[in-house]
Design brief:
The structure holds two protein chains of two kinds. Chain A has 20 helices and two strands. In chain A, helix 2 packs antiparallel against helix 3, helix 4 runs antiparallel to helix 5 and helix 13 crosses helix 20. The two termini of chain A are 41 Å apart. Helix content of chain B is 70%, strand content 0%. In chain B, helix 1 packs antiparallel against helix 2 and helix 2 runs antiparallel to helix 3. The relative contact order of chain B is 0.13. Classes of the chains: A mainly alpha, B mainly alpha.
Chain lengths: 503, 116
C-alpha cells in the first residue's frame, strides 16, 4: 500500500519529524527521535535502491497533478545511490555520535540541533528525488540553511566566521543557479527537467541558453566545492562539531555535484552543440588542479580535520575528473567514487570524533599515542584511511581502478591523467601515513602536559556505540571493495542514463 | 542592439553586480549581508520582468482582457523571497553571535584574533 508513495515518504518522514523533535526537551529523547526518523529514511532508501536496479525509474506525481504542470518526483539509479549515501551517512553519524554531541552542545540547544539535522536531511534527499529545477533550488536552500546551523552549533567560535563565509558563498552559488534556471525557464517555459530536455532543442544556440549554462555550472560548482571555489570548505568542516563534519563530509558536496552532473549531462550536453566539449575543457583542468592542490595541502596540514577536509577537495576532483571524460566508463567511475568516498571519509571523521573524546584536541601531535589507548578504534581508522588511498581490497580501490581504466581510453591525455591520479594517490599515502605515524609512534601528548587539562582517557566509558558503528563503516569499506554488487550496478545504470542521448 | 528597450535587464545587471561588489569588497559583515540581499533582489526583479507581457494583465478570466502575464514567475519568486529572508535572518543571527564571540564585525579584525 505504501510502496508507490515511497519517493514522497523519503522526504516527508524527516520533514514532519523536524518540528516534532524541537518539543522533546528531556536529554536523549530528541536524539532518539531524530535517529529513528533517519533510520526510517535509510530503510526507505534501501527499498528504493533495490527497486530501481536494472534501469528502472520511479516517478511520483505530487497531489496527482500530471507532469509537467504538477510537481514530479523521480528516482532513478543515480538518485537512489545518492539517497543511500545521504541517509546512510546521517544514520551512522547520529547512531555513533550521541555522546560526542552531548559533549559539544549545551542541553538547551540539543533539540534545535537535531531538528536542523533532520531539515538538512530533508533538503538533501529532496534534491535527490526532485525532478523539478525550482524544487531543487528550494531543497538546496533548505539543506544549506540547516547545515549552517549544524556547523555553527558547536562550542568552537571559529566555526562562526567559517560558517558566515559558507553562508555568503553558498547563497551566491544558489542564486547563480536561480539565475540560470530563470533564463532556461524564460526560453523554454518549463521547469520540469524531463520536459525541459525536450524543449531546449528549439532554442539551443541562443545566447540566453549559453549564459544559463554558465550560471548553472558555476553556481553548482560553488556549492560542490570544486577547486578553486572550495575555500569555504576546509574551515567549515574543521571547526564544526565532529559528528556534523562526518555527516556533511559524506554527502553535502556530492549532492551539489549530483545536480551539476544531471543538469549538464541530461539537459545541456545532449541538446547544446559543443557543450560536452566545453564542459570537459573547462572542468578537467580544474579537476586536475583540485586533485593536486588538495592532496598537496593535506600533506602539510597539522590539524587532523583540516587535513581530511583538504583531502575531500582532492576527492571531489576525482569525481569531476571522471565526469569530465564524458564517457560511460568515466561517469561510472565518478558516480561510484561518490559512494566509496562517502564511506571512507565518513568513517574517518567518525574516528576523529572518537579520538577527540579522549584527547585534548585533534592536531597531529595531540593524537600522539592514540593507537595504544584505543587500538580497535584506531584499526577502523586505518581501514578507512586505506580505502581513501585506494589500496586493493577496499572500496576506494575499485573506483580509482575504474577511473584509471576510463582515463586510458583517451590516449596520450589519458596517460597524463593516470600520472596525476598516481601522484595524488602517493600524496594520499603520505598524509594518511603522517596520521598513522603520530598515532602509533609519537609520545602521549596529554601525559606531558599538566594533569588538570587531561581529559578522561577511558574511551570504553565514553561510548560503546561509536566503536561499533565505526567498525560497521570500516567493514563496509572492505565489503564494497570485494563484492561491489549494488553500488556498482546502480552507478553503471546511472552513467548510462546520463549519457543516454550522446553518441 | 536595442539598449533602451531592454532597460529592465540593465537594471538587473547593475543591481546584481552592485550587490556582488559589496559581498566581495566590503569587510563589514552587515554590509556583506546587505550586498547579498541586493544580489538576490536583482534576480527576483529579473524573474518578474520576463513574466510580464506588454499590455498584459493579471490572469483572471473576465471582461475585456485578452493578454495575460505569466503568473508562475511571481509564484516562484514568492518562494525565493521566503528563502532570501531566511538566509538574511540566519546571517544576521550569525553576525550577532560573531559580535558576542569576537567583539567585532569587521572581517579583518576577526581574522586577526583567530591567527595563531
Amino acid at each position: 500500500m505504501l510502496a508507490p508513495h515511497l519517493p514522497m515518504l523519503q522526504v516527508v518522514v524527516p520533514l514532519l519529524m523536524a518540528p516534532f523533535v524541537v518539543l522533546l526537551r528531556p536529554r536523549g529523547l530528541a536524539w532518539a527521535a531524530a535517529t529513528m526518523a533517519s533510520l526510517m529514511a535509510f530503510a526507505i532508501a534501501i527499498v528504493l535502491a533495490l527497486s530501481v536496479v536494472g534501469d528502472a525509474t520511479l516517478t511520483y506525481r505530487v497531489g496527482g497533478w500530471m507532469a509537467p504542470y504538477g510537481i514530479e518526483l523521480r528516482v532513478d539509479a543515480f538518485g537512489a545511490l545518492l539517497l543511500l549515501v545521504i541517509t546512510g551517512a546521517s544514520s551512522m553519524a547520529l547512531l555513533g555520535g550521541q555522546r560526542s554531541l552531548e559533549r559539544a552542545l549545551p542541553p538547551t540547544r540539543e533539540p534545535y540541533y537535531f531538528s536542523a539535522w533532520l531539515l538538512a536531511l530533508t533538503g538533501f534527499v529532496g534534491i535527490a528525488v526532485s525532478a523539478d529545477a525550482f524544487n531543487i533550488f528550494v531543497f538546496m536552500e533548505v539543506s544549506s540553511l540547516a547545515s549552517y546551523v549544524l556547523i555553527a552549533g558547536g562550542p568552537d567560535r571559529r566555526a562562526l566566521s567559517a560558517v558566515f563565509k559558507y553562508l555568503i558563498m553558498g547563497t551566491v552559488g544558489a542564486t547563480f543557479y536561480l539565475v540560470g534556471i530563470g533564463l532556461v525557464y524564460m526560453m523554454t517555459g518549463t521547469l520540469n527537467l524531463a520536459d525541459m530536455a525536450g524543449r531546449i532543442e528549439a532554442v539551443a544556440d541562443t545566447r540566453p541558453m549559453i549564459v544559463a549554462a554558465g550560471f548553472i555550472t558555476v553556481g553548482l560548482a560553488l556549492k560542490a566545492a570544486i577547486f578553486p571555489l572550495h575555500i569555504w570548505l576546509p574551515n567549515a568542516y574543521a571547526y564544526a562539531p565532529h559528528v556534523t563534519t562526518a555527516f556533511l563530509a559524506a554527502c553535502a558536496t556530492k549532492v551539489a555535484l549530483y545536480v551539476l552532473l544531471r543538469f549538464d549531462f541530461l539537459i545541456l550536453q545532449q541538446h547544446l552543440s559543443g557543450h560536452a566539449f566545453q564542459f570537459a575543457g573547462y572542468l578537467m583542468p580544474l579537476a586536475v588542479l583540485g586533485i593536486l592542490v588538495g592532496s598537496g595541502v593535506a600533506m602539510f596540514e597539522r590539524d587532523l580535520k583540516r587535513l581530511l577536509a583538504f583531502s575531500s577537495v582532492a576527492q571531489i576532483g576525482y569525481m569531476l575528473l571522471g565526469a569530465s571524460l564524458v564517457s560511460v566508463s568515466g561517469l561510472h567511475a565518478a558516480i561510484l567514487h561518490m559512494f566509496n568516498h562517502a564511506l571512507a571519509k565518513g568513517g574517518l571523521f567518525l574516528a576523529v570524533a572518537a579520538f577527540a573524546a579522549v584527547t585534548s584536541g585533534w592536531r597531529l601531535e595531540q593524537i600522539g599515542g592514540i593507537a595504544r589507548t584505543m587500538p580497535w578504534t584506531f584499526a577502523a581508522f586505518v581501514v578507512c584511511g586505506l580505502s581513501l588511498i585506494g589500496v586493493p581490497g577496499t572500496a576506494g580501490f575499485l573506483s580509482k581502478w575504474y577511473l584509471v581504466t576510463a582515463a586510458l581510453e583517451h590516449g596520450a591525455l589519458g596517460i597524463a591523467l593516470v600520472c596525476v591520479i598516481l601522484l595524488s594517490s602517493l600524496m594520499a599515502v603520505a598524509y594518511v601515513w603522517r596520521m598513522v605515524e603520530s598515532a602509533c609512534f609519537a609520545p602521549d601528548f596529554d601525559a606531558e602536559t599538566d594533569a588538570d587539562s587531561t581529559p578522561n582517557r577511558d574511551f570504553a566509558a565514553f561510548s560503546h556505540l561509536l566503536p561499533t558503528i565505526l567498525w560497521i563503516v570500516a567493514l563496509a569499506n572492505l565489503y564494497f571493495g570485494l563484492a561491489n554488487a549494488l553500488p556498482l550496478e546502480l552507478a553503471k545504470s546511472a552513467a548510462r542514463t546520463l549519457l543516454g542521448g550522446l553518441p | 542592439m536595442d539598449i533602451l528597450g531592454l532597460y529592465h535587464y540593465w537594471v538587473f545587471a547593475v543591481l546584481l553586480m552592485t550587490g556582488f561588489y559589496a559581498i566581495v569588497a566590503k569587510p563589514n559583515l552587515i554590509k556583506k549581508l546587505i550586498g547579498l540581499s541586493l544580489f538576490q533582489s536583482a534576480v527576483f526583479l529579473c524573474y518578474i520582468t520576463f513574466g510580464k507581457l506588454a499590455g498584459g494583465t493579471a490572469p483572471i478570466v473576465g471582461k475585456g482582457a485578452e493578454l495575460f502575464s505569466s503568473p508562475l514567475p511571481q509564484v516562484l519568486i514568492l518562494t525565493a523571497i521566503v528563502v532570501s529572508i531566511s538566509t538574511t535572518a540566519l546571517g544576521l543571527a550569525l553576525v550577532l553571535r560573531i559580535k558576542e564571540a569576537y567583539g567585532s564585525i569587521e572581517e579583518d579584525e576577526i581574522q586577526e584574533q583567530d591567527a595563531p
